[in-house]
Amino acid sequence: MAHPKPDIGDWYEDIDSGELFEVVAIDEVHGTVEVQYLDGAVGEFERDHWPALPIVDAEPPEDANIAFGTTAHEQDANTVEPANPLDTLEGESFTGTDEPDH
């Protein structure tokens, strides 16, 4: 079986630790592959060492957004409709907008 080639957005599993990670960047200048684990931790591997890593291709986890502090459900709920900040303003909070007290 051929060793998986690193591609941005692809998920891999470290077969020694069982950890899942996503390739988030490939730095051709410095010869590194940058990855992010499910807990949000960021790591880096030397591109030359990639073929020797004990990893296999993996499916993205059910909730791949967990590293960003939100679940997919929370993220969807937050993007349904942005709140209009003007809806929270009260007329009484501005001088000159209230009816005069009698």
Outline the structure in words:
- It contains 1 helix and 5 strands.
- The chain is mainly β and 102 residues long.
- Strands 4-3-2-1-5 form a 5-stranded antiparallel beta sheet, with no helix packed on it.
- The radius of gyration is 24 Å and the shape is elongated.
- The N and C termini lie far apart (86 Å).
- 7% of the residues are buried.
Summarize the SSE layout with pairings.
Blueprint: E1 11-14, E2 20-27, E3 32-37, E4 42-46, E5 55-58, H1 72-79
Antiparallel strand pairs: 1-2, 1-5, 2-3, 3-4
Characteristic key phrases:
102 residues; mainly beta; 26% strand; DUF6763
CA-based gyration radius:
24 Å
- Sketch the topology as an H/E string, one letter per element: EEEEEH
| Gross morphology | elongated
**SS field, number of helical segments:** 1
Region (Disordered): 70-102
Pfam family, one: DUF6763
Summarize the structure.
Helices cover 8% and strands 26% of the residues. InterPro entries: DUF6763.
